[in-house]
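Service request form, structural biology core

Requester: graduate student, group of Dr. S.
Request type: structure prediction, single chain
Budget code: on file
Notes: please return the result as structure tokens.

Sequence provided:
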Amino acid sequence: MFENSTYNIFKRLALIGAVLALCVVVLGAYVRLTDAGLGCPDWPGCFGTMTVPESETAIANAQQHFPEQAVQVGKAWREMAHRYLAGTLGLVVLALFAFSIKLRKHAGVSVTFTTTLLLLITFQALLGMWTVTMLLKPAVVTSHLIGGMSTLALLTWLAHRHWWGHCSDTIINYPHQKRYIRIALLVLFAQIFLGGWTSTNYAALACTDFPTCHGSLWPDMNFKDAFTFMRPLGEHANGSAITLESITAIQWVHRIGAVVTLIYFLLLSLYMMKFWQLRTNTLLLMTLLLTQVGLGISNLVLHLPLMLAVAHNMVAALLVIVLVTINSKITGKK
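Core staff response, request fulfilled:
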């Protein structure tokens, strides 16, 4: 009886964690797109406190200790809301780890899995700190996005395994066929990386015409400097200002990645429609994919309106959820 009660708590925490992870990813996108990532110049607090200075006295005190940055209450609150939510998610993951130790003999509960999740969320916290201390260095911010999506993927997998039991090795019988669905996750995460690299380098509006760029199907581009990973924001590795050719290359590669992802997912979806157990998930995947393409084009031609840009990030997260669910369904429970 005690074990069943503990297991039910574990299941609820897994589902809560997956929902929280989705909220953290979407809110993180909103923070980034409203330039609030440096709303607080320190970490984990904000201007030396665990809340945002709002009174005249508090603001004056904050400016005395952090004279290099003006207090912008709105941006600071957006950043702190993201930190509070991410901190709550961290506590949920810690609780999952603790409960998994108690339930280590229970079928399907893996201490190794929750340990991996705990290590990932810890590394995410470090990336959050480095995002501030390294002044939005693109490599760190993009890694933070990938870490957030990975956390969402793991929590989605955990929740699906323990809430929905219709998982079977026999939905698809041949390993090489399953491999195409596994590879889809790598394709999706590669495209999410390219999207994150585009956003963190402020390359989303490097060219705003479509399907051409600057009126050409192959505009002037600098690939070498565009994909130098370790460099400051807005600069090349040698310290010079990043050029239009570099940010054009970043956006153009993201566009090519979108085409590759679209073709792969459409072909995969046509294949998965053969299996009745996957049809609902496949239709949802195709709907989200086409919505994502529409949002990407709309963001270009409408010059990146905030709500559409946030929605673009949210749909990417929903694609992760659906694809992880499909992968879980074709994997039998051990």
